[in-house]
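If you are new to this repository, start here. Below is one unmodified record pulled from the training split, so you can see the exact layout before writing a loader.
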Amino acid sequence: MKTCQAVIVFFLTLGANAATLVPSDAQQSTQCIDDSTHVGRTPYNYPSYSNYDTISTSQLQVKSVFDWVDSIATAMGVPPGFVKDVGRNESKWPKPNNLNYLIPNGDLQIMPATYKIWYKKLGLTGGKTRYNYLIVGIAYLKYCKDQGDGTWRQARYIYARGRWKNPSQWTKLEHRFMSDIDWKLYD
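And here is the target side for that same chain:
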């Protein structure tokens, strides 16, 4: 049985507005101890870049709704850029730096009945929040992809219209919102 202990020494320096953590390469050590052989190992030597030497606490906090989009979409296997394009089509992302701002039906314009079903299905709590609307919208985009032929193009159309139609049957509005996205980036 292996017991691993990681010992990392950080110097804490105070900045004007936030604390910064500065790891010292010379003082980092990792020791893995195998109970039977007591073998010590040193950590992998990652390259050091000057712009990563200090991290302020403000960099660790969510700054805009797009940070949520990146995180949720990546976790669900949906391209974050695609979600941003859909949101641009649907709501134009109003006030992205105000995380508490909420427009009716959210940034991805989820229909109330769809929101209610998926909110319950996903086991969400907290009611109608911007964050919950994003989770539901992104999960629903993923579901739409699975309902279609597996392309994000069909997923977008199904998301907006409920079912796929042949492009020759699309309205001018449907042609417009479908042509606003560069499909080569996603399919």
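Two things worth knowing about this chain: Helices lie at 65-76, 80-90, 112-121, 130-147, 152-161, 172-179. The chain has six helices and three strands.
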